[in-house]
Amino acid sequence: MATEKWNSPVKVGFEDAVARTVSGPFDALKCLADFWPNARGLHYIKARSTCRAALDGRKSVEEARAEFLAAAEEAKLKLH
């Protein structure tokens, strides 16, 4: 379900790109795949997995949001 949205979107600043507004797990997966820095740790892996699970209905979209935020903090990205 690519239309699933979070209660509150997240704006993430990337070094080589304009800040992106991430509205749900589908957007998060796109950011994780296309814009993420090379520093990819445990939170990155958990965020990818949880976002996929949220799209499949196995996890909540808010669980995916929490994991995405943890991954962004791990990668030292700016959150707005």
Please outline the helices and strands.
Layout: E1 10-14, E2 17-22, H1 25-34, H2 42-56, H3 61-74, E3 78-79
Antiparallel strand pairs: 1-2, 1-3
Helix pairs in contact: 1-2, 2-3
Describe the structure.
This protein is an alpha+beta fold and 80 residues long. The protein has one domain. It is built from 3 helices and 3 strands. The chain has helices at 25-34, 42-56, 61-74; strands at residues 10-14, 17-22, 78-79. Strands 2-1-3 form a 3-stranded antiparallel β-sheet, covered by helices on one side. Helix 1 packs antiparallel against helix 2 (42-56) and helix 2 (42-56) runs antiparallel to helix 3 (61-74). It starts with 9 loop residues before the first strand and ends with a strand. The mean pLDDT is 92. Pfam families: DUF982. This is DUF982 domain-containing protein. It comes from Rhizobium hidalgonense.
Features:
80 residues, alpha+beta, 3 strands, globular, 49% helix, three-stranded antiparallel β-sheet, single chain
The H-and-E topology, N to C, reads as EEHHHE
Rg to the nearest angstrom?
A: 11 Å
> How many DSSP-defined strands?
3
Biggest pleated sheet: 3 strands, antiparallel
Number of domains: 1
Low-confidence stretches: none
In the sheet with the most strands, the strands line up as 2-1-3
Cα(first) to Cα(last) distance is: 26 Å
Quick recap:
This protein is of the alpha+beta class and 80 residues long. The protein contains three helices and three strands, in the order ββαααβ. A three-stranded antiparallel sheet has the order 2-1-3, covered by helices on one side.
